[in-house]
Amino acid sequence: MAVPTIDAPRSGRVSPQYKRTGTSKGNFEMLAWLFMRVSGIVLVVLIFVHLWLNLIDGDGIKGIDFGFVAGKWADPVWQIWDLVMLWLAMLHGTNGVRTIINDYAEKDSTRFWLKSVLYSATVVIIVLGTLVIFTFDPCPVIDGVAHVADYCPAP
Amino acid sequence: MSKTPAGTLYRGREGMWSWVAHRITGVVIFFFLLVHVLDTSLVRVSPEAYDAVIGSYKNPIMGLGELGLVGAIVFHAFNGLRVILIDFWKKGPKYQRQMLWGVVGLWLVTMIAFSIRHLAVVFGG
Ligand code: HEM
Ligand code: HEM
User: Does the beta-carbon distance from A41 to B84 stay under 8 Å?
Assistant: First the structure.
């Protein structure tokens, strides 16, 4: 069998029925394409180590509780790890879902609303996740009651 | 001329189905991540709230769900690397089919090893 030849991907001109915007967006789509690949490579490392530590190492998933999270976030390495993982995974996932919306939603207004919901969710999750990592308190005092754990000062 | 050109990367056969699977797994992981950040944020409510919700996940049904999630991520990750090789490696497009079988093989090995460990944790005493 002859080796199939693969045409160069469409670049520049896109036939009108696939055009999703009238104006040129400069290099944005190319940068988004590149970002998917660069972030993907980094995410493999970040996520595989995350899954190893939380599902395989130690007691596996049974070992996860508040104390486990406190133990990890006591170390700035895992704070930064989770922070980068949060941002990259959310931006990569958001851009991927944006592509999918562009592919399937044909009406301008439908695309607008779907993307508005998407971007709102992305902002909320990134802000929330970032705040959680940096405002985390391993020994919180709630309604005057101090959390009891062997790593917390005795009340 | 035939209506379905042979040898495109994304139309028909392995190239298309791996793309469909990549798309579905990507969306699944994205929605998981939204929920995952929300439940992790319970550590800022109280240790009890976090432990209660995480504790409610510790049952065989969620255990199987975690298996499915990891299966989705491992496929998306390996196939994502394949897509990157197709785009940047000179011989990538020529070997895309062979690389897909590589992805499937690595996925099987990873998932068998992971299942042994994870199911022992979930179903073991
Ligand atoms: C079933 C599999 C998973 C389990 C059991 C799990 C468990 C956890 C736990 C216990 C934490 C708290 C901090 C830490 O341990 O680092 C956490 C945080 C986090 N996980 Fe996972 N995880 C899983 C899968 C994933 C996946 C697939 C992703 C990426 C797509 C991910 C992304 C994150 C992020 C971004 C944070 C930080 C959240 C924040 O900023 O509040 N996790 N995870
Ligand atoms: C584990 C490391 C990962 C790698 C190597 C990876 C790789 C890739 C690549 C290369 C693409 C572009 C495919 C194309 O242009 O045809 C892509 C698309 C996508 N990824 Fe990932 N990714 C990873 C993790 C994630 C995570 C954590 C999420 C969710 C939060 C995600 C969601 C998506 C989505 C929704 C798409 C769009 C699919 C499409 O357009 O059909 N990926 N991924």
Answer: yes
- Detail the DSSP E strand segments found in chain B: none
| Chosen from B30, B42, B81, B123 to mutate, greatest number of chain A CBs within 10 A | B30
Per the CB < 8 A criterion, the answer to whether B79 and B22 are in contact is yes
**Domain boundaries B13-123, CATH class:** mainly alpha
CB-CB under 8 Å, B37 with A128: yes
Sign of CA dihedral B23, B26, B28, B31: negative
Ligand 2 pocket mutation pick from B22, B74, B106 by most atoms within 8 angstroms of CB: B22
Domains and CATH numbers, chain A: 27-146 (1.20.1300.10)
Q: Are A89 and A97 in contact (CB under 8 A)?
A: no
Ligand 1 mutation target, pool A44, A48, A50, most atoms within 8 A of CB: A50
Kindly provide the ipTM of the predicted complex, given to two decimals.
0.89
Say yes or no: CB of residue B30 within 6 Å of ligand 2. Answer: yes
Nearest to B58 among A51, A62, A125 (CB): A62
* pTM for the whole structure: 0.89
| Rounded Cα–Cα distance for residues A12 and A5 (Å) | 21
pLDDT in tens, B3-59: 555 556 666 677 889 999 999 999 999 999 999 999 999 999 999 999 999 999 999
Task: Note whether A9 and A33 are within 8 A (CB).
Answer: no
What are the extents of the domains in chain B?
Answer: 13-123
